[in-house]
Each structure stands twice: as structure tokens, then as C-alpha cells.
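Human: Not sure, check this?
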Amino acid sequence: MEFISRHPDQTRRLGTRLGLMLQVGDLVCLEGELGSGKTTLVQGIASGWGSPDLVTSPTFVLVNVYRHPQGRRFFHVDAYRLANPGEAEDLDIIGMLEQGAVVVEWADRIRSILPAQNLWVKMRWVDEDQRDMLFRAYGDRYLSLLAELRHQIYGVS
């Protein structure tokens, strides 16, 4: 599914819709250059998931954990500073998935250690006010998640 955002608020709203649908064990992988809107999308996802916390990029800490009033967790991973996929193994993304939903920015840098079933979002900066997002679903859970997201946005299945 392709989605073109013409404003950061539109990107956040899309993220909010996605965040409302996430469950423990869900993995969303974000790919895109600097400025493509990855963190903006995550802000919306975290809000929809139910976190009251301020969302910032975890570039220097690698992982931010956001809380939910009911005790659930939302993990925001940034693989930008990792030299190779082996360094990501130490983060224990599988363990994170057992505790909550996980979103990985710069997921293409560590693709080889990520579970094959996921929702992959390739983001692209088009111009100052426009971002292009291409969503791909891998696995039955993510096919249904993407179908529901498509229905919510476009009104079609």
C-alpha cells in the first residue's frame, strides 16, 4: 500500500491509526533516509498505542521504551548507529517482542536478524511538505493489519 503524506500531522495521524491496531509481538520496520519522517510516524504510532510519553529518536541510546497506563510496553529501536546486524543481536529484539510492540527505525541495516514476519514501511522524502510511504506486509498477521489500515484510510479492503 502506498500513502503520500503532505504534512507531519498527516504522518502522525496515519501512525496513530496503526498504533491503535498493534498488539504485543507486532514488529514494524521503518526504512528511509534522514528526514523521511520515520520518527514522526513513530510519534503517531506510540500515541495510538496509548503512550502518554514524549517520543524522541533513540539514535544515541538505541532503544526507548514507552509506557502504557495498563503496563504494556512499546519499544522504539534506532539501528542508525549500529555497525552491523550482529550488534543488534545484543539488543534482544525477540525478547522485546515478547513484552510489547516494537518499531525499528533504520531496519534495513539489521534486516538479517529481524523476524521475517513484519510490517515493512519504506519512507521517502519527496519535498519539504511531502513524504512517500510504501507499506509491505510479510505474514498473515501483517497482511490483515495492512488490510485494516487500508480500509481505515481509503475505505476499501
Q: What stands out?
A: The chain has a mean pLDDT of 91. The longest strand covers residues 118-127.
